Amino acid sequence: MTTKECLNDAILRFSTQVHSSNCQVFSWFQTWEDTSCGFGVIGGCAITKAKCVVVYAIDIKQACVYHNGRFAYMIKKTGDEFNTQLEKRNMPGLSEFKNAKKTTNASY
Fold first, then answer.
1. Distance between alpha carbon 73 and the CA centroid of its chain, in Å?
2. Which of 81, 71, 72, 52 lies closest to 9, judged by CA?
3. Phi, psi dihedrals of residue 92, rounded to the nearest 5°
4. 20, 49, 67 from 46: Cα distances, Å
5. How are beta strands 48-57 and 23-32 bridged, if at all?
């Protein structure tokens, strides 16, 4: 997916109707340890750079995360951890995000 396609997809996924003018879109290349790009599936053993896109709905404080052109996950209530990872430009992969959500009830 292109960055614009990620934005359009995220708008459809958010819990309430959101207009694109109320979204912030962040995009960068992120380095992964393998070719699965954070999805936790079997991938090749090559260090891989892939585009990460984060669409943040300002008013409802939700975010959609895309790795390598694919939807990875939605954060239904963003918090300090989200802000920290966004500032570092290092969003966790899907499997890492799921594990973090299992161990804490706090907002991400």
1. 6
2. 71
3. -65, 155
4. 36, 10, 16
5. antiparallel
Report pLDDT digits (tens) over 21-47.
999 999 999 988 877 777 776 666 677
Number of neighbours of residue 88 by Cβ within 10 angstroms: 9
Supply the pTM of this predicted model.
0.87
Q: What is the pLDDT of residues 57-106, one digit of tens each?
A: 999 999 999 999 999 999 999 999 999 999 999 999 888 888 776 555 55
C-alpha 16/C-alpha 99 separation (Å) is 26
What local confidence, expressed as pLDDT, does residue 59 receive? 94
Task: Specify the 3-state DSSP secondary structure of 104.
Answer: coil
One DSSP character per residue, 4-44 reads: HHHHHHHHHHSSS---GGGEEEEEEEEEESSTTTTS-S---
Give which of 83, 107, 106, 90 is closest to 29, Cα–Cα.
Answer: 90
